[in-house]
Amino acid sequence: MIRTALFVILVGWTSVSLASSEQDPWPVDSVHPPSMDYVSLEVAGSRLNGLIYRAAGPGPHPGVVLLHGYPGNEKNLDLAQSLRRAGFNVLFFHYRGAWGSEGMFSLLNAIEDVAAAVERLRTDPAMNTDPKRVSVVGHSMGGFLTLHHVARDPEVRCAVPLAFANMGGYVRMAAGNTELMALVKDSLSRRPPPLTWADGYSVFSEVRDNADALDLRGRVAALAARRMLVLSALHDEVVDYDMNHRALMAALREQGAPNVDELTIDSDHVFSAHRLTLIDHVVPWMMANCR
What we know:
Elements: E1 3-10, E2 13-20, E3 35-43, E4 46-54, E5 61-67, H1 77-85, E6 89-93, H2 107-123, E7 129-139, H3 141-152, E8 159-162, H4 167-174, H5 178-189, H6 200-209, H7 220-224, E9 228-233, H8 241-254, E10 260-265, H9 275-289
Parallel strand pairs: 5-6, 5-7, 7-8, 8-9, 9-10
Antiparallel strand pairs: 1-2, 3-4, 4-6
């Protein structure tokens, strides 16, 4: 993608003019312009903070629930903006106990939170979203939550897990390997600052105690029937590529998985140097398969 930049330096200030192929491709709909609003989700008596990115046009639009990881430093809101430009309404939110949302953070709570968010996008008239065209996109732990949800919800149109972590599978594969278990325990038991209501060790304990239920390999038959783009990072420093992407894709291929596509980007866990590459793959795939 070619970009040019012209810098004009005047006395006391700098003017920057950018020419880019990423310019918005059509005029703004003055009657139904794109917008962004705060959304409050109520789950089990807790208020969850969220945002709705509304696409231009009268709608109803296809929708996406966008899920962040653990703890969610990378929120992928550049992807949310690009999906909105492509005509999708995008609902982004923080799980219970994360980034100012009320309640206690836990993986099991987050699973419930995702189900509530999908239902809200489907049923709230203010969302202006077609309930039959709702998809889920998630990164890291959010990728796990994406896969876990769509395995149970056949009405989801598409699923796009990004650099996903098979949470229960990690613990089960590490069982009996003292060194590997120590690494998994250290990773999951940290208490990142945004999770203000979570005891970090409780996250590891919860995954360990529910490893069978949280292992995506037990949901392969359901996942193989879904329409998905499984996208991972080859040089992921957080999520082991072989234990997650390759293991799940091998199991899916054994089931046939006719509507499952896969893609590997030569990048790190958050696709730091390849954000446009990520968007240039995810958005066209969703435009072709999920609208």
